[in-house]
Design a protein that fits this description.
With about 375 residues, the protein is of the alpha+beta class. It has helices at about 10-30, 35-65, 80-105, 125-130, 130-170, 175-180, 190-205, 270-280, and strands spanning about 115, 120, 215, 225-230, 235-240, 240-250, 255-265, 265-270, 290-295, 300, 305-315, 320-330, 335-345, 355, 360, 365-375. It has 2 domains: about 10-205, Fumarate Reductase Cytochrome B subunit (Up-down Bundle); about 215-375, Beta Barrel (Lipocalin), CATH 2.40.128. The protein contains 8 helices and 16 strands. A hairpin with a 2-residue loop joins β14 (about 355) and β15 (about 360). α1 packs antiparallel against α2 (about 35-65), α2 runs antiparallel to α7 and α3 packs antiparallel against α5. It is elongated, with a radius of gyration of 27 Å. The chain binds protoporphyrin IX containing FE (HEM). Protoporphyrin IX containing FE binds next to α1, α2, α3 and α5.
């Protein structure tokens, strides 16, 4: 290695990041045009490669911290040196910012993200824990920032490549060759390890097992019901309107993503008085909280056809963990799901401890019976 060259590790990091960014741009622009499972896969490939760029950038900064970089030629005017340093600092900054904006974007999204088709994406906790409405607002913000930073980064990359070519073709001052890959020379162990890491990651993203299938619930053959007991009476009701987004694969339950939105105005017991009570501020208060949401990512297997979702229920603006064991039976693309759980209504501010002098059970039973067809059948 020439002393005016970057080390093989620095070169490996530079070219690996360049290659990934080269793939990320067209993928970012094109992925919205895909449909169904391919769209999900394209988005998750983009997210996974993007987060890899972030990891490699961190390694790169660590490398820079412990290593000196080749000197710029003495013939280079001071103004050009300053411009080159500023351009490089901006490239680092824009790359970090775009990856963080991407990470923030998926941390405020309602859609699931799977890292290299292997595991759920780790989300930024202070963003993923925000209430749904705040998340939506932040999501828009990060979406705009991510797109804008794309154009900033692209402009910086174009300037960077133009500068490199000017040094390589016109000035021939050795700046370009200091970062040129040394094909044919024996690479260092670290550079080989970095390239193997990159190739392994890329391979993993292309050859992973199939992602969870999307399912569409058939409302005419499905029911979401609740049951509360008090004063010797049992009140049963159903939610007439709800939306369920389900991604599930029995062979990869860890990739499960479920979101059920309930229209709280659609709760009906068959008794006008009881329905009116449910719509009061004391009970569901749909005027202020028109929807309730149950969202879960990843299911645990609990024996043949049995799984458990550890999700979060948001009801009357209160979010609490609720685990939901379910049984699923899939036959030629149609799934029948039954699930049952209990929630403590007082946790969500639904009703009071006693109602009209009657003791009412705090636990309310929720039962779910869904029939769904696989969309990518
Ligand atoms: C250097 C790294 C990255 C580059 C160059 C890049 C580039 C892009 C580009 C050009 C788009 C299209 C923007 C548009 O159509 O307005 C995009 C979209 C997107 N990117 Fe990235 N990205 C990077 C990293 C990431 C990361 C780390 C994540 C998440 C972990 C991510 C998540 C997304 C998502 C979710 C979208 C779709 C946004 C939407 O729905 O409008 N990106 N990206």
């Amino acid at each position: 290695m020439n002393s005016s060259d970057y080390t093989p590790a620095a070169k490996a990091l530079h070219w690996l990041i360049a290659l990934l960014i080269f793939v990320l741009f067209p993928l970012g622009w094109a992925m919205d045009d895909f449909t169904g499972v391919q769209k999900f896969q394209a988005f998750n490939l983009h997210k996974s490669l993007g987060i890899t760029v972030l990891a490699l950038m961190v390694l790169r900064v660590i490398w820079r911290f412990f290593n000196s970089v080749p000197e710029l030629p003495a013939s280079m005017p001071e103004r050009q040196r300053k411009a080159a340093h500023a351009a490089h600092a901006l490239l680092y900054l824009a790359t970090f910012l775009i990856t963080f904006a991407g990470w923030a974007l998926i941390s405020t999204s309602s859609k699931p993200s799977v890292l290299f088709q292997v595991t759920n994406f780790p989300l930024l906790p202070w963003l993923s824990d925000l209430p749904a409405d705040d998340k939506k607002a932040y999501h828009h913000l990060f979406e705009g920032a991510h797109g804008f930073l794309g154009w900033v980064l692209l402009a910086l990359i174009v300037a960077h490549i133009a500068g490199a070519l000017y040094h390589a073709i016109v000035l021939k001052d050795g700046i370009y060759s200091s970062m040129k890959p040394n094909f044919g020379k024996k690479p260092s162990g670290l550079a080989v390890a970095l390239l193997a890491f990159g190739a392994g990651f890329l391979g993993l993203s292309g050859t992973g097992k199939a992602v969870a299938s999307e399912w569409s619930v058939k409302p005419e053959a499905s029911q979401i019901a609740f049951e509360a007991t008090g004063g010797g009476y049992t009140t049963k009701g159903t939610f007439g309107q709800y939306r369920a987004e389900i991604e599930f694969d029995p062979d990869a339950p860890e990739q499960t993503a479920v979101r059920v939105l309930l229209n709280m105005n659609s709760a009906a017991t068959g008794t006008a008085d009881a329905d009116e009570a449910l719509r009061s501020a004391e009970f569901f208060n749909p005027a202020q909280f028109p929807t309730a949401q149950y969202a879960a990512r990843g299911a645990q297997s609990a024996g043949a056809g049995k799984y458990v979702l550890n999700g979060r229920l948001t009801l009357k603006g209160v979010t609490k963990p609720v685990s939901l064991p379910f049984l699923i039976n899939i036959k030629s693309g149609t799934a029948h799901v039954t699930a049952e759980t209990k929630i403590n209504r007082l946790d969500f501010g639904v009703g009071q401890e006693t109602m009209a002098g009657l003791a009412v059970d705090n636990d309310v039973k929720l039962t779910i019976d869904l029939t769904a067809v696989r969309l990518d059948n």
